Amino acid sequence: MVVYASNSRVKHLADAFFDHLAIERGLSANTRASYRFDLDRFTDFLQARPLQHFTEVQRHHITDYLLAERKRGLSPRSLARQLAAIRVFCQYLTREKLIPTDPSQTIDSPQLWKTIPHTLDYAEVEALLAAPDTRTKLGLRDKAILELMYASGLRVSEVSQLTLNAVNREAGFLRVTGKGNKERIVPIGKPALASLARYLAESRPALSTRGEIFLSNRGTPLSRKTTWYLIKKYARIAGITKHLSPHTLRHSFATHLLQNGGDLRVIQEMLGHADIATTQIYTHTDRERLKDTHHRFHPRSGKQRG
Fold first, then answer.
1. Residue 59 annotated to the active site
2. Pairing with 247, which of 52, 102, 217, 228 sits 20 to 30 Å away (CA)?
3. Structure pTM?
4. Which range is least confidently modeled, 21-30, 59-68, 109-118, 189-198?
């Protein structure tokens, strides 16, 4: 039997496939309807390709489809569901000897795809750190927050929860409690340490005697939401138009360490990642920077020059 990519021509085979899902696999009507919806979208996509039969579908057709859906705004979870439907269909076609090989079998789940994080370059970091008005008490606080987040790679939630007894100013280290209640030790760096010391000496005593380091003007601990608001506020003041996330300074910290020769395992430890694979996303960022540099400056990069 020839399997066509067209929706109309594949209908008879799809009907047999969905009977298989109901009778042999015992899937519910809702699950079958979800599979049918996802497969209809995939076959619609194939119709725009120069394919005559489903036997011509290759791995890159499936990945192109998933990337197109990703650009359309679908989440990794939704993409993984679509790939699952395509896989089950391809496995059925292969088992029934309707296609020679399964083109979906070597495709990683989109839930494993990593988005290269947004980072700031050195000039943007400097502009952001210079944005708070340190002539005011809250400006001193905000300067210390930004310096500390960039110097130590802290999560927004971690800097909000940081306490006075977590800081060893003599040794220049912080004791941070991160995800999973796991504790790690991270260095502070002299500029961040100086900003923190000035804030603690000149600003914080007027706010409160609580244990948390960073406090509101009412003397209450800063929330994660407020800290994130402050980052966005100072990015606007600094003229930064890039997309920001609560982890932008953390991503910049890791990327700049790697670009300057930092060891990936050490960066993993400072970030508090349980798995080195999580830290490896920054190697992708660094590769993008290298590719961009090559494209811009190498005479044989293929870039058109005037």
1. no
2. 217
3. 0.60
4. 109-118
Q: In the annotation, is 234 catalytic? A: no
Q: Is 155 a catalytic residue?
A: yes
Does the domain formed by 122-295 have CATH 3.30.710.10?
no
Residue 156: other Cβ atoms inside 10 A: 24
Q: Where are the domains of the chain?
A: 7-111, 122-295
Which of the residues 143, 204, 250, 256 is marked catalytic?
250
Residues 6+ positions from 250 with CB-CB distance below 8 Å: 149, 153, 154, 155, 271
Catalytic residue list contains 198: no
pLDDT digit string, tens, across residues 165-197: 999 999 999 999 887 788 899 999 899 999 999
Active site residue 118: no
**pLDDT for the residue 305:** 46
Q: From the candidates 81, 155, 251, 256, which is the catalytic residue?
A: 155
Domain 7-111, classified CATH 1.10.150.130, yes or no? yes
Q: Which residue among 179, 210, 242, 291 is the active-site one? A: 179
247 is known as an active-site residue: yes
